[in-house]
Amino acid sequence: MTTTSRDTRDRQAVGGRSALTPPPQPRPRQRITTRARVLVAAAVTLVFVAPIYLMLVNAFKPQDKILANPLALPWPPTLDNLTKALSRPDNLIPLGLRNSLIVAVISVALIVPLGSAFSFYISRRSGRVKAIILVALSAGLMIPPQVTLLPTIRILTWIGLDHSYPGLILANLGGGYLSFAVFVYVGFMRSVPDEIIQAARLDGASGLRIWWQIVMPLVRPATATVVIFLTLWIWNDFLNPLFILGPLQGQTITTGLYLTIGQYSVDYGQLFGIMFLAGVLPVIGYLTVQKQFVAGLTSGSAK
């Protein structure tokens, strides 16, 4: 036997099995577990996809076909539901979209600089003070917003901002949205090297300039993640606009959907059309900044 054949046999022996031996087959219990996981994943996906499917197909069907079979595809499709929703005499869609857009943009535009600046301050601190601040902020994420809704309304009434859009925006600033932004930014700002901060301070840069011109460009993925999440949450918020604004002071698109539901009858075609129009802007916004959003999630998981 040659040296080459002996070396080959030795390598095969070290590997644990011969090259001609087939790989081990999964056990029956492993097969059952794998199939169960696939079925559970498919069921969970179906639960999340089913409402979206119902909204899409019924937005382009007349009322009688919706009542007959809401799961059927819209054939032939119609745009009457969207036309009726846009031509309502109360201008529900234009006003609701405008109000929701104004509230979401202003709230996020205020939360991002406040949250990032406070996170920069926390990330450069150490010890008990930092831990106490983070524990206090975590309460904003753990306490349900329904618990703090009534005290928030009383505070807004006391300062004269109840039933107003500035009051709604101020309520967004004081809720769990700011806590979420702080927690996301702190994880990113901890990775900023101290050498960069110290070099900027030696050059005479102030703390405000360091935060805005040096740190913020380094945490753009975090900013994109915060902006997307907060915009979607504020856009989809229902309780705060309903109770803080009230039905007579105006409505966002979510409270507008609630007002379209009649007490005795519901025009499902128009309702699904309004749902479709209400979901168009968030989807377009997400597709626009999708790359930054994915980059922010992956970078945050690595950190």
Automatic annotation (TrEMBL):
CDD domains, per database record: TM_PBP2 (cd06261)
Transmembrane residue ranges: 38-60, 101-122, 129-147, 167-189, 210-235, 268-289
A cellular component annotation (GO) from this entry: plasma membrane
ABC transmembrane type-1 domain residues: 97-289
Membrane topology: Multi-pass membrane protein
Keyword Transcription among UniProt keywords: no
Pfam families xref list: BPD_transp_1
Keyword Transmembrane helix belongs to the record: yes
Protein name: Multiple sugar transport system permease protein/raffinose/stachyose/melibiose transport system permease protein
